[in-house]
Design goal:
Elements (H helix, E strand, L loop, with lengths): L14 E5 L6 E2 L2 E2 L3 H15 L3 E5 L17 H11 L4 E2 L6 H8 L6 E3 L7 H5 L2 H8 L4 E4 L14 H5 L5 E3 L1 H15 L5 E5 L4 H12 L4 E4 L3 H8 L3 E2 L9 H11 L3 E2 L3 E5 L8 E5 L2 E2 L4 E5 L1 H13 L2 E5 L12 H12 L3 E4 L2 H9 L8 E2 L3 H8 L5 H4 L5
Parallel strand pairs: 1-4, 1-7, 4-6, 5-6, 7-8, 9-10, 9-17, 10-12, 11-15, 17-18, 18-19
Antiparallel strand pairs: 2-3, 13-14, 13-16
Helix pairs in contact: 1-2, 8-10, 9-10, 11-12
Length: about 400
């Protein structure tokens, strides 16, 4: 799936329409975490430093078109980008309207413009070709550097590059890196290949589990979805979070997975959802009434760590327990430490896993932390991305 990158095209004097992921958390008009803006900087600087005219487009939050969406304005993100770049960044108060048109036309070589939130326009989520054509008119070159939305078919992701057929259509460095790590892991992993899947719901990860059971040596299960598997084996789950309508499916996965599917052998439980609740560690399937499973137990954590340390390729998506709440962060911490020690390629699949690895301080000790939870999950399912497939081949 190798694609041409922004480095492969001559941008001097040309308008580059770049889709970025500036979906950053805001406190009023203040960006509280600029991580996603920083991740886009290499692609942005590549255009600016080579004399391109850069038009940036992104979504932020879930505004409702036609309503007062001022809280979702991208202006704070544009101001943060200006601060990080150390240069002026223009901001258009609309997305494809008169202000955007005027400011795109006024761009000079090396200049940067941020358009207002794409989702202020109904045409973005609907994939409207008319809206996409207006965006497409702003660029001589299209660049996708928004991995977090690569699994979507929004207008800026698919219809806009389609409308720019015949013009260069490339990926940014962030998307290039994500594709490289995730597709290599799926298509050409070094063995042993181990997947660690956590989180609350089996239903969220059915296709991922099925796909990975076909290509992994081991699939380790943690998080609340382990209790649905425990119920499927006839175990007692107390007050644990379970999906009773997915028990039959869990039975099928246990049967199909055989020795590849590794389930917890013990569980760290509490009689309330708090750090100061009464706690007990029990064998899996023996959770007493009035208690709920909140983490894998120490035996499971040790078993998982041994498997991870021997692995050559590891993909992790979903924490092992309630990692935000000590002491139920221990399972996640132990697995994260094993990942950090491993000499293999370790890929963290975005979302809560990425938050956990950062919170625990291991981000610099793993190979890759994905920027897109939903997109990385879709890629692990083996799905194709229209937003990437239509871009120019390397």
């Amino acid at each position: 799936m190798a694609k041409k990158t922004i480095a492969d095209v001559d941008v001097a004097g040309k308008k580059v329409l770049m889709r970025v992921d500036f979906n950053v958390p805001l406190d009023g008009s203040t960006v509280t975490d600029d991580g996603r803006i920083r991740m886009a900087l290499p692609s942005i600087k590549s255009v600016v430093e080579r004399g391109g005219q850069l038009v940036l487009m992104s979504h932020l939050g879930r505004p409702k078109p036609g309503q007062d969406n001022s809280e979702f304005s991208l202006q704070p993100a544009a101001e943060k980008l200006a601060e990080l770049l150390g240069k002026d960044v223009a901001f258009a108060t609309d997305t494809v309207g008169s202000d955007a048109e005027a400011k795109v036309a006024a761009l000079n070589d090396g200049g940067v413009l941020v358009l207002e939130n794409l989702r202020f326009e109904e045409g973005e989520k609907s994939g409207c070709s008319e809206f996409a054509a207006k965006l497409a008119a702003f660029g001589d070159i299209y660049c996708n550097d928004a991995f977090g939305t690569c699994h979507r078919t929004d207008a800026s992701m698919v219809a806009t590059p389609e409308a720019m057929a015949g013009k260069p259509r490339v990926v940014g460095f962030l998307v290039e890196k994500e594709i490289q790590y995730l597709t290599d892991a799926i298509e050409n992993p070094e063995q042993p290949f181990v997947a660690i899947l956590g989180g609350a719901k089996v239903s969220d990860k059915i296709q991922v589990i099925k796909n990975l059971l076909g290509i992994c040596d081991k699939v380790l299960i943690g998080g609340a979805m382990a209790y649905t598997f425990s119920l499927a084996k006839g175990g007692a789950v107390g007050d644990s979070l379970v999906e009773k309508d997915k028990v039959e499916l869990a039975k099928e996965l246990i049967e199909d997975g055989g020795t590849k599917l590794v389930l917890p052998v013990d569980t760290h439980c509490g009689d309330g959802f708090s750090s100061d609740c009464n706690k007990v560690v029990v064998n899996s399937g023996e959770i007493p009434d009035g208690f709920e499973g909140l983490d894998i137990g120490p035996q499971t954590a040790a078993i998982y760590s041994d498997i991870v340390e021997e692995a050559k390729t590891i993909v992790w998506n979903g924490p092992m327990g309630v990692f935000e709440m000590p002491p139920f962060d221990e399972g996640t911490r132990t697995v994260a430490e094993a990942l950090a020690k491993s000499s293999g390629t370790s890929i963290i699949g975005g979302g809560d896993s990425a938050a956990a690895i950062r919170q625990l301080g291991f981000e610099d000790q793993v190979s890759h932390v994905s920027t897109g939870g939903g997109a990385s999950l879709a890629m692990l399912e083996g799905k194709k991305f229209a937003a990437v497939d239509l871009l120019d081949e390397a």
